[in-house]
Amino acid sequence: MDVHEYQAKEILARYGIPVPRGGLAYSPEQASYRCTELGGDAWVVKAQVHSGGRGEAGGVKVCRSDREVHDVANGLFGTRLVTRQAPGGKPVYRVYVEEASDIARELYLALVLDRASEKILVVASSEGGMEIEELAERDPDAVIRSVVEPAVGLTSFQAREIAFALGLEAGQIAQAAKLFQSAYRAFRDLDATMLEINPLVVTGEGELVAVDAKMSFDDNALFRHPEITELRDRSQEDPRERHASDRGLAYVGLDGDIGCMINGAGLAMATMDMIKLAGGEPANFLDIGGGASPERVLKAFRAVLNDKAVRVMLINIFAGINRCDWVAEGVVAAFGQIDVTIPVVVRLAGTNVEEGKRILRESGLPIITADNLAEAAQEAVTAARAAVPA
Ligand code: GDP
Ligand code: MN
Q1: Inter-residue contact 287 to 262 (CB < 8 Å)
Q2: Are 15 and 47 members of one domain?
Q3: Ligand 1: does its nearest atom lie under 6 Å from the Cβ of 58?
């Protein structure tokens, strides 16, 4: 789960990381009022959307008067901010108004879960501001990587080493090391999967300040952090994924036209590969999980068809804990309750497969059946091609 910048900053501030003073606004009037509250003579208006790259998309603007803050906010509210990371755009319902920072240097700091080492990895660079992918490509040696041993945590020695590698001045080393350790504590305590401070700013006075902040959290650990769960902003989520997650279904939205209902993430991955190999593109995949009842299959059916780009539906079930007869019953029930206008390809294997196939056969429904994964993918791609007007 992702949170907004201002929420991430509130969290970091609780862990002792300096952030600029700011206030949230839901209207242009409230935004300009924030200037009076904050004082000073320069402010930054920042669109709160779950995406980076807001600056270059026009979502971050430095303003010199409360009038200007009002007008910038007015221009942002109700629009969709299209960024490099969110080509479909994300709706702007909140803006954050901050006192402008006096930026002398921009650094990059991130903590991520590194799958290769299976540990938390600190990534830092003395060239902040731009995106890390861009940085890694332009100058890979400028990216500092430091793996944290979970048993000891981020030691002050290791934190200082990172600070030195960033070329910070002697007076800033202790401050930076403490900040890195605080960031690590926040990451670990809250089961984060990503924490990015870009830019981490060195001000004219030589102080370190987190001018931007991004955090993502492990969905499977949210039960331990009700205060984080409350930060969820549904307006920022893919509506297709939201519909499915509201019904307890694991769903991933993609860009193609073949909708997929599969049991198990591993089989889903294999199915995506087979569809691609057959020359098709998946529109989504929905994992119905183990022990799927006919009701659950029906819900999953609705979630997949909810995506208007879907031209064919592929159901691929390898039943271990699941039962093919239940899945088949769910499919038949779905045809009874939903107006299914697209071709449906079904491949069943495993527990009660013969019974499952019999149910489908005797239903008299126009279901395309396949005996293995390759055949199922091929049938789906063929049907998708036929469905696309040439
Ligand atoms: P992002 O584009 O979504 O990553 O948003 P950021 O919060 O990182 O802002 C983008 C850029 O705007 C930063 O890299 C800074 O260069 C600039 N910026 C943000 N806040 C301030 C500020 O307080 N003062 C100044 N001068 N520039 C800022
Ligand atoms: Mn940024």
Answers
A1: yes
A2: no
A3: no
The answer to whether residues 222 and 281 belong to one domain is no
What's the chain's Rg over C-alpha atoms?
Answer: 25
How far apart are alpha carbons 52 and 63 in whole angstroms? 20
How many domains does the chain contain in total? 3
Q: Which of 237, 255, 290 is the last residue of a domain?
A: 237
Ligand at shortest distance from the CA of 106: 1
Summarised one tens digit per residue, pLDDT across range 310-332 is 999 999 999 888 899 999 999 99
42 lines ligand 1 (CB under 6 A): no
Strand spans (E) along the chain: 22-25, 43-47, 60-63, 80-81, 90-91, 95-99, 103-114, 119-125, 143-148, 192-203, 208-210, 214-217, 250-253, 258-262, 282-287, 312-319, 344-350, 367-370
* Catalytic entry in 196, 251, 329, 379: 196
Domain of residue 133, residue span: 1-19+102-237
Q: Where does residue 314 fall: left (phi above 0), alpha (psi -120 to 50 degrees), or beta otherwise?
A: beta
Q: Which of 5, 44, 132 to mutate to test the pocket of ligand 1 (most atoms within 8 A of CB)?
A: 44
Instruction: Give the predicted TM-score (pTM) of the model.
Output: 0.84
